[in-house]
Amino acid sequence: MNLFTRMLIACVAWLAFAPSGGAAILDDVSFADAASERVHRVVATRGETIAGLLSVPARRLLPTDPPTWEGGRIAFELKVDPARPTYFTLRLSGSDVSRNRLMLYADGKQVGYRHLGDYDALDVGADAPVCAGRFYYVTQPLPESLTKGKDRLTFEIRASGPVSAYARTFDEYQKVMTEPSRGVYRAYTHTEGCFVPPADDRQGAAPPELPARIEPGAEVITDVKRRVGGALEGLLRDKRPPGQMQAQFLARAYFVKWSPAAANLKAVERVVAGLDQAYRAFRKDPKFAEADPSTPNPDWFGLGPAGEAVGLLAGAMGATTLDERIDDGAGGRVVRRSAYADMLVASRDWHRRNRRLYTNQSMINDLYGVYWCNRGVAAVDPARAMPEAEARRYLYESVGLTPWLGSDTDAGPSRPAGDGFYQLTARGLTRELGYVGGYGEVLDWVTQIYNATRPAPGEPGDARVGEQLAKIARARAAFRYPSADADGFRAMRLEAVVGWRDAHYPGYVTYAQRATWDGSPVEAAAATLDPHVVGYAQQMLADNQFFAAVRAQVKAGGFRTTAGLLSVPDDYEALAARPPGPHRLPMTGPGDFAFADEEDGVVAIRRGDEILYASLYWRARHAVNGLARVHRITPTFERQATVRLARQEFEPSGAFWTRPNWTDFGFAKGGHRYPGNPKSAHAGERLPIAKVPADVAFEPGQESPFAGRAEFYEMRFGDYLIGMNASRAKTFEVIAPAGFARAPELITGKTIDVGGPVRVGPMSTVVLYLGK
Description:
Elements: H1 3-17, E1 25-30, H2 34-39, E2 43-45, E3 47-51, E4 57-61, E5 70-79, E6 87-93, E7 101-106, E8 109-111, E9 135-141, H3 144-147, E10 152-160, H4 170-173, E11 183-190, H5 219-237, H6 244-253, H7 265-284, H8 298-301, H9 304-322, E12 325-327, E13 333-335, H10 336-352, H11 359-380, H12 388-398, E14 408-409, E15 412-413, H13 443-452, H14 463-476, E16 480-484, E17 490-494, H15 523-528, H16 531-542, H17 545-555, H18 559-564, H19 568-576, E18 593-597, E19 602-607, E20 610-615, E21 627-633, E22 637-644, E23 647-649, E24 652-658, E25 686-690, E26 712-717, E27 720-725, E28 732-734, E29 742-745, E30 750-753, E31 758-760, E32 764-769
Parallel strand pairs: 9-22
Antiparallel strand pairs: 1-11, 2-5, 3-4, 4-11, 5-10, 6-9, 6-11, 7-8, 7-10, 12-13, 14-15, 16-17, 18-19, 19-20, 20-21, 21-22, 23-26, 24-25, 26-27, 27-32, 28-31, 29-30
Helix pairs in contact: 5-17, 6-7, 6-9, 7-9, 7-10, 9-10, 9-11, 10-11, 11-12, 11-13, 13-14
């Protein structure tokens, strides 16, 4: 393609997508305003008028009587552009808290998918304020098949109850709507992805500085010890054999000095009873080695918890115990050492032949199902164990140190993603179908992997894994932004709006590490003592969010949470002993900041007092979709937008994927079927499939990390022009609009010439700021 052609394409794209101020708004309706509603033929069913945020009137939709999964709805008409792509934007209050959902319909067809589609729901609900005291705007592109040749559409916003993503039946999945929806303030149609609110939209303002939490304090550590210690004492007294998760808990606690199980031979005795019982269950049904129903996600964990318990306590058990004959549950006797080895080998070998692709799942399977089982075998029957270097191969693959080769077969590794697929990107993010928030927070699992490689508790683990753990934590740091917690105190939140597997907004309060069932919010910092990661943890301590996070864990129910609290006191002690460091999370540090990951197609930018996150590779599961997802945070309002890219370049495969009539999930055959069989506004859209590597098995319609991935992305959003080159050998160009000679390039921090084409080299990103 010659320079003139490239410039022509760029100019056309610019004319199509560049902001044009207020003229971009085609039409708008202010809800609860009688004159505006009359002009736009508003009809509300099961709704009420409220005095909303900043005393701006709004409507909210109510549950039915009696309540069902559906709530109220509001219909209205708005102008659209018959020739140009049209967007729809809804104004919502960032102070409202509701787990209910809002879906958009146009001419009777559903726009967007209810769960994890590339076209999202208008509102997926929230259990904390998104941006208290301010408004936020949700933008969606309307399918051109709806607007082409038309100048007006009938829209409808329908409310429904929350959903439970992992439910199996419709009734379990779609919950009843029992409380009002969020208030809906104003709806707009426009022709640009970066919606600019009109001047008469009253806006709030973020406070100049939020206060730090005052309570709770260090007394929470006492509460942790009380809860964990009480659970351990109960297990030590219990006459029943513990399950393998409980046995693992006791084995870990054996090495924790403050716990009642510390160096306690009763703990060893109880673990042995649990392992004996696990063997009898395996003897009765060999599939028990594949999936123990008492564990979370059984076919990921296998007998890994038992394997860890054996590996940790084999020395304390001693030869006398291990060589004793035990009842096998089938009328025979077996040497305990052989029994443990038999069940752990079976679990290890099944899990190495049934590995998982998505990073967090791969880590769990390989740590528990493979590595810990092998460590247990090595402790009781070394001749049947894989060499340590061979066992660590699975861990190295899962943490992205070496290419992930897939499940083992008789002919060698299956290589379903080819020879060069890494589970993490070169920048340190989990490599999936784009950036992922919650499920990308794998620091707890990588810390467990690092701890698993310690020759003994307290000794250093694998140095390569430790370095990778610190690298991941540093990369994740770009995806924490300043916000308020649910009580209005200063906090950092995990970016979730642009996460491809995220359906929870706003993201969790997160600093160095997200608190989970299985891990403390500072365990990665305590394990690595990396100065940057320690600095992030110290920022959490300074904001007094550490004790708040731990208190929430203490108050949460469940054995898994109890077991996850075991390391908290020692982690806290290790961090409290560190001198204050200079490092803080980059979205709060001095100066501007920009981060890009071409393999995940994501950028994170802080310029002055605003933050921009953008996923240019957005939920393109089956084919190239031309969409990007944006979250822009300013002191006066926020935007959540799905927008059309100005340009994508990729090698076409020649195959296409046509969107089915799915209205629930954007994957997995469309998820659940809703009453009335609603019609999707996207059904029938034909999308091109990118060329998939020759060594990867693929058929059109499959979810793939290759089918929807482009080599180059170009997006204009407001004052930002982004060019991202995700190829490894090609060079592309972006062209700034006329009138710009020089502009700041935010990735390098330099001001560059933009009077001509700007080159974007392989695996690099250019972010030009074109504002004042």
